[in-house]
Design a protein that fits this description.
The protein is α/β, with parallel strands linked by helices. The relative contact order is 0.15. α2 runs antiparallel to α10, α3 runs parallel beside α10 and α4 packs across α5. The radius of gyration is 22 Å and the shape is globular. It is built from eleven helices and eleven strands. A hairpin with a 7-residue loop joins β8 and β9. The two termini are about 40 Å apart. Helix content is about 40%, strand content about 15%.
């Protein structure tokens, strides 16, 4: 029996393909109806439509060679500069646009590894100290970069424990990491205290603000109590933040920021001895669509600080409403004291997995 061919010999009509489009999505979660707790971050049709136009306008352009498409270089310069301002970066703080939090985190760890190598340090494997609540992307980056991940327990409040982190520091340690906030519980680690550790031991400190980078600054500006987590803390040397989360940019929009250009330079890759000429890339990815970067630039300019503050307050209002509803059940309990719009809850006397199954249904 002949195997059915998937790749059509003759192209299908545009009308037929467009007619099939709703069917292709028919089994996907209806996020438009509020059926997801994550994965999709949408600012509403009014704002999203402008970002979508920029996304489409630049979807075929490549960010690999900025001299070919100076528009994309300008977009990156602008969104990084806005992010630096959000993170209270002083003169010299710089960064790059990336495709997501995983790439941003990968680059921060690569920079730490390169610095250790340049010092002539041969005490491998190099070690990275991580609170156990850190995002698994750090473990993934350690795996690919041949770094040893040292996971340490967090406190009862689910925040990183600086004491436990300091006990884990040794001659192989090259980097400390923490979250603002962590994904499981929505709490911000004590970055100020961890920053003191980094300064004391001469280590780099990366803050993973992929979830909170585009939310916490606008909550702080709106009067919410937000612990310091950014470049106002002297020990912080790099920050990752995702624009495709609460920045409401198209998927594939993140940034990695560094205290200075010397750190950023160590994320680059350049190869000149090639028959095709000089090959260089400033981030891990090579060719990538300019669409997400253009869409990110558009949504940041379209919303402005005022728009982000408004959306942040609306998200927190909804979060508090859900938490208050959970609090009315004596059998349920919100875990810890979340600083932002993500939180976890558990059951005091039932099976939380049954509750999870019911919510999934």
């Amino acid at each position: 029996m002949r195997k059915k061919e998937i790749f059509p010999e003759k192209g299908r009509s545009a009308a037929g393909l467009l007619e099939q489009l709703p069917l292709c999505k028919s089994n996907d979660t209806r996020w438009e109806q509020g059926k997801t707790f994550g994965f999709v971050y949408h600012p509403g049709t009014y704002y999203a439509s402008v970002a979508e136009e920029y996304l489409k306008a630049f979807m075929y352009e490549s960010t690999l060679n900025p001299s070919t498409f100076p528009s994309l270089r300008n977009f990156e310069k602008d969104i990084v500069s806005m992010a630096v301002e959000m993170m209270h970066g002083t003169r010299g703080v710089t960064g790059s646009a990336t495709t997501g939090g995983t790439e941003s985190i990968f680059l921060a760890l690569k920079v730490a590894r390169e610095l250790a190598r340049e010092r002539g340090d041969e005490r491998i494997p190099f070690e990275v100290i991580l609170p156990e609540t850190i995002h698994p992307a750090f473990l993934k980056a350690c795996h690919f970069l041949s770094l040893k991940a040292i996971r340490v327990p967090v406190g009862e409040d689910k925040r990183a424990d600086p004491g436990a982190m300091e006990k884990a520091i040794n001659k192989r340690t090259i980097l400390l990491c923490c979250s603002a906030p962590c994904f499981p519980y929505g709490v911000i680690d004590p970055v100020s205290r961890i920053g003191q550790l980094a300064k004391k031991h001469g280590l780099l400190l990366h803050v993973d603000a992929c979830m909170g980078g585009f939310m916490l600054p606008f909550l702080e500006a709106s009067g919410y109590p937000v612990p310091l987590f950014d470049f106002r803390i002297p020990g912080v040397t790099s920050i990752s933040l995702d624009a495709h989360k609460y920045g409401y940019a198209p998927k594939g929009s993140s940034m990695i920021l560094y205290r200075n250009g010397a750190l950023r330079k160590r994320q680059f890759f350049i190869h000149a001895d090639w028959s095709g000429g000089i090959f260089a890339s400033t981030t891990f990815m090579g060719t990538k669509s300019g669409g997400p970067m253009a869409g990110c630039w558009a949504i940041m300019n379209h919303l402005g600080k005022e728009g982000y503050r408004t959306l942040a307050r609306e998200v927190m209002k909804t979060t508090r409403s859900i938490m208050d509803g959970i609090g009315k059940y004596e059998s349920l309990q919100v875990i810890s004291n979340p600083d932002m719009s993500i939180f976890a809850f558990t059951s005091r006397n039932g099976d939380i997995y049954q509750i999870g199954d019911a919510l999934q249904a």
